[in-house]
Amino acid sequence: MTIGNTVGAERLSRRMARGCEFLGSEVAILGGAMSWVSERNLVAAISNAGGFGVIACGAMTPELLDAEIAGTKALTDKPFGVNLITMHPQLFDLIAVCAKHEVTHIVLAGGLPPTGSLDAIKGPGTGKPAKLICFAPALSLAKKLIRSGVDALVVEGMEAGGHIGPVSTSVLAQEILPEVAQDVPVFVAGGIGRGEAIAGYLDMGAAGVQLGTRFVCATESIAHANFKKAFIRASARDAIASVQIDPRLPVIPVRALKNAGGELFTAKQREVAQLLDTGSVEMAEAQLQIEHYWAGALRRAVIDGDVEHGSVMAGQSVGMVRKEEPVADIIAALMGEAVQALEKRAA
Ligand SMILES: Cc1cc2nc3c(=O)[nH]c(=O)nc-3n(C[C@H](O)[C@H](O)[C@H](O)COP(=O)(O)O)c2cc1C
């Protein structure tokens, strides 16, 4: 990946140097793990194009993860990471699979690292310990994570696709970067669709960025043609967060393109709330029905192409996804825009 030798290019590579060194990549852009989408083909393509691909382990078994890491290694000799979800029942077996393959970077998503997981990833006796990257949804948690020994942070705002927190990327970046960016590399995620925004967050002290939505329509992505078409047609306002309608029935917000599935989910919540009111179901059963509603829904959309009833998780930057194109072109465009933005800083 060549970014030229202009003033803007020199400024960009200086601002990305720390993130690149940490990741072992040419550009400090992580391809955020996306369940079903971030498998060997997309991950290897991102790493081969100079970025840093991350395998989404999601609900994979240790055996499937083992095969996915091996498959990715067969497609790239560049570094890549593995994203593990903290509540996976076999988290420690998955960590062992990563260790077996000497995976260099583990991204832990879904909450604070459970007891013992930090030691399993980085502790003594782990041979070549992996670098651990965690999500920091607030400044206090960012500080806590750094104290507990994580190597880098992702700060992800609610513009992002998939499961989201309540605060926007711009506010989180302002709250967290000035306080902790000197201690560990911080990667900003959520709503980034163009290089100007990347330049902006680098100027604020980020070591790099993480993008998900922008990579879904890469030529190398195995997402179903219907899934990609839905992305290309959508605008920012189509990517909406799921809404909880009853305080008794918790819903973790997910940002996805609005479709019939989303409307049926609202109807399902109403139906279950009524059953609770009449005493026809117990609270635990009611909550389980809500929690399980979306099980398999992302797969249904990404792999089967049912974009009406499946979950078409997408961030607000979806409006900036205009066509299917190779990962290398996406990264080159982002870098070009960032270079231009930084070039202008000279004026
Ligand atoms: C379809 C889809 C699936 C996702 N799945 C996961 C996941 O399994 N684990 C995770 O940590 N983040 C997941 N994310 C979030 C991405 O890793 C990334 O942080 C996010 O997409 C960045 O924001 P952006 O979509 O605005 O670029 C997903 C996002 C999308 C769009």
TrEMBL record:
<dbReference type="GO" id="GO:0004318">
    <property type="term" value="F:enoyl-[acyl-carrier-protein] reductase (NADH) activity"/>
</dbReference>
<dbReference type="Pfam" id="PF03060">
    <property type="entry name" value="NMO"/>
</dbReference>
<keyword id="KW-0285">Flavoprotein</keyword>
<dbReference type="InterPro" id="IPR013785">
    <property type="entry name" value="Aldolase_TIM"/>
</dbReference>
<dbReference type="GO" id="GO:0018580">
    <property type="term" value="F:nitronate monooxygenase activity"/>
</dbReference>
<keyword id="KW-0288">FMN</keyword>
<keyword id="KW-0560">Oxidoreductase</keyword>
<dbReference type="InterPro" id="IPR004136">
    <property type="entry name" value="NMO"/>
</dbReference>
<protein>
    <submittedName>
        <fullName>Enoyl-[acyl-carrier protein] reductase II</fullName>
        <ecNumber>1.3.1.9</ecNumber>
    </submittedName>
</protein>
